[in-house]
Amino acid sequence: MRYVDEFRDRAKADVLVKEIERLLAHTGRDQDRPLQIMEVCGGHTHTIFRYGVEGMLPKSIELVHGPGCPVCVLPMGRVDDCVAIAEHPEVIFTTFGDAMRVPGSRRSLLQAKADGCDVRMVYSPMDALALARQNRDREVVFFGIGFETTMPSTALTVLQAEREGIKNFSIFCNHITIVPTIKAILDSPDLRLDGFLGPGHVSMVIGDAPYEFIARYYKKPMVIAGFEPLDILQSIWMLLRQIDEGRCEIENQYARVAPAGGNAVALQAVAQVYELREFFEWRGLGSIDHSGVKVRDAYAGFDAERKFAVPNARIADPKSCQCGEVLKGVIKPWQCKVFGRACSPETPLGALMVSSEGACAAYYQYGGIKRGRDETEASVA
Amino acid sequence: MNMVSFPPRRSRGTVHVPTVTLAHGGGGKAMKDLIDDVFVEAFDNPLLAPLDDQARIDLLDLAQYGDRLAFTTDSFVVDPLVFPGGDIGKLAVCGTVNDLAVGGALPLYLSCAVIIEEGVSIDFLRQIARSMAATAQEAGVKIVTGDTKVVNKGACDQMFITTTGVGVVAAGVELGAHRARLGDAVLVNGLLGDHGAAILGARGDMALQSPIESDCAPLQGLVASLLNAAPNTRFMRDPTRGGVATVLNEIAEAAQVAIEIDEAVTPLRDEVRGFCEILGLDPLYLANEGKIVAIVPPDEAEQALEAMRAHPLGRQAAVIGSVVAGESGRVTMRTIFGGRRIVDMLVGEQLPRIC
Predict the structure, then answer these.
(1) Which one of A1, A52, A55 has the shortest CB-CB distance to B273?
(2) B154 interfaces chain A, CB cutoff of 8 Å
(3) Interhelix angle for A359-366 vs A42-50, to 10°?
(4) Are A80 and A105 in contact (CB under 8 A)?
(5) A55 and B347: CB-CB below 8 Å?
(6) Is the CB of B337 less than 8 angstroms away from the CB of A367?
(7) Which CATH class is domain A76-176+292-307?
(8) What's the DSSP call for residue A321?
């Protein structure tokens, strides 16, 4: 299949793996002191597991699976708010499918649906707006979730609703921003990372400039990476080349999709509709300053938080959860006390077990091989 | 069976209204007319004709086919009722026929219980009944008993169908997941995931136009050729809900073996691959309605593959993997990229109401 198979070419992968091994030999890193690279984005985590990329890499490279899965980092209190909105009898609550199973403190949206709430899965906020057009006597709420990648489409939908004068549509805004979050990880005292794979689809919107501080102040290299397995390998190779040559820059491997300056139209829509929140609560990471956005006063009529009495209660993460340590690369998913026991994809306790892009869920589903390799040295890869 | 019995000499009833109403489930003349005009008309056969509360089947007749009765049931709630490549009627016959066939049984008789929401058009009901009749004929089975219920608007989504089937297993045919052994080949009879992708496309909520048709088909003929060519076949299952990934996990679990498949040789239609790429689905978990997964001993794998490929429903059959040494109960896949990953059971579901 064109535009797909070229990016999964095994022969090219073999060449890259050899180059990675050669560069790594230069750095003097070994299994006992591995090079730790964080892929920030859940999409990368998924690709890495889906294609078995980690098993192809030398053992002296350790991939740390970052916080870039918006479903995973959604705190329980916000899920409770979703359910509270959905409980209004006039509401049609619309959401992307993977947010349906995220547990709240009482129940998930999937359970709320089973209990009679009108919760519907959509593939785009525009589908939600279409529902509002067709159901003028109902209140249609779209669950806005995601990083800068999905922020513009929600913003453009609000602008479209305004143009059409649709009054029965609003968004429950849970959009979050990646930069303050990376900063929070970089500021954590137990940080051990050597470099980052940057989220390519966020850069498609914001470009590469917002990451400059990572190289400049924190002296960590970053390569903005695409989502096919060859993209991942090439990005790791680019990162190693920087380390080998003693450079520390923000490089863009995903130039075919992510332009240096980002997408001006998308950024304009985002700036028009949202403003930064003072802080936003993350599952596993706690409260991070300026890490979320809310709807501006000018669009208050489209803001579900103002339209409905949202309880906005803060619910602490379960005590047994070690998602924060996994996110920062301090422990591996299976080293968590509850991994695979109290916390599994059927009954997730922690953020990282919730979505297929979460590191723990990915390990649970695809990762036994890597884990076996690391733990017993009985290599099957 | 809730069909009213009536003197055989009486003429068949006819429905004179355009839609099904609660009266058609009332047990009286309206119901008799509906059953006569729609179901008896379509299924017409001597065992059904008396319209007694049960069909009576001669044991000696059954015994000529083998020494064990196979018995299965399945309910069908697919949404939408008509989709590219089939409809709920065809699916209801294929599903039960295939459940019998993969057990090594020759499918012979089906029952058909229909729950209808008031307001469904008689013409549509007729269309579904005829689809069932045509598929039954193709599968060599007879629909010999049934039941009709009509429920209030909203109590079901247009129509649910339950079919129960009986078949006979020939003497000497022994199939079981636990019989899988190290070195056995894993075969499928063609392109995977078509049904799941077709249903998803037909729902229309994706705003994706796709030419993908369901693979829905009765497999008794293909299974017979396979068993003829590879008599020591260990096990077969039709990978419906949960797809091939789920069936392989069930086999690995039951036999306490490890299974490895190879992504590069797993047959997939480009359209299905594209569909999955766009929607973030894994084709290994998509439903099939005209496929089997067969575990065959290594020395019979070649004949098995040839037999499948010689059959119209197996042209693109492939050996996709084998039973290997490794952690028992574990299914893995060599990826096209050269890596290796675990193929686990599906958690929750990719899609509701696909069959």
Answers:
(1) A1
(2) no
(3) 10
(4) yes
(5) no
(6) no
(7) alpha beta
(8) -
Collapsed DSSP state (helix, strand, coil) of residue A200? helix
B204 lies within 8 A of chain A by CB: no
Q: Is A209 on the interface with B (CB under 8 A)?
A: no
3-class DSSP state of B148:
strand
- What is this structure's pTM? 0.88
Q: What's the half-sphere exposure (Cβ side, CA atoms, 13 Å) at A336?
A: 33
Tell me which amino acid residue A325 is.
Answer: E
Fold of B177-342: Phosphoribosyl-aminoimidazole Synthetase; Chain A, domain 2 (3.90.650)
Instruction: Decide if A8 and B337 are in contact by the 8 Å CB cutoff.
Output: yes
Residue type, A378: A
Please list, in sequence order, all residues whose beta carbon lies within 8 angstroms of the beta carbon of residue A105, skipping any fewer than 6 positions away.
A76, A77, A79, A80, A315
Whether the domain at B22-169 and the domain at B177-342 fall into the same CATH topology: no
User: Two tokens at A146?
Assistant: 């995601």
A101 touches B at CB < 8 Å: yes
Q: Domain locations in chain A?
A: 76-176+292-307
How many whole angstroms separate alpha carbon A177 and alpha carbon A290?
Answer: 8
Query: How many whole angstroms separate alpha carbon B111 and alpha carbon B53?
Result: 12
pLDDT at A356: 67
Report the sign of the C-alpha dihedral through residues A108, A114, A115, A119, in that order: positive
Provide the edge-to-edge strand list for the sheet that holds A195-199. Answer: A61-68, A35-41, A195-199, A222-225, A250-252
Please give the DSSP secondary-structure letter assigned to residue B280: T
Task: Judge: A345–B341 Cβ closer than 8 Å, yes or no.
Answer: no
Task: Check A50 against B341: CB less than 8 A apart.
Answer: yes
- CA dihedral A121→A123→A124→A127, nearest 10 degrees, is -60
Interface of A with B in 120-149 (CB under 8 A): 122-123, 127
Q: Which residues contact B269 (CB under 8 A, 6 or more apart)?
A: B191, B193, B194, B212
Mind listing the pLDDT tens digit for each residue in B218-246? 999 999 999 999 999 999 999 999 999 99
How large is the angle between the packed helices A229-244 and A42-50, nearest 10 degrees?
A: 110
> Which of B176, B180, B110 is CA-nearest to residue B138?
B110
ipTM: 0.82
pLDDT at A9 over 80: yes
* Cβ–Cβ below 8 Å for A368 and B327: yes
B206 touches chain A (CB under 8 A): yes
Residue with tokens 């797909």: A4
Q: Which of helix, strand or coil describes residue B183?
A: coil
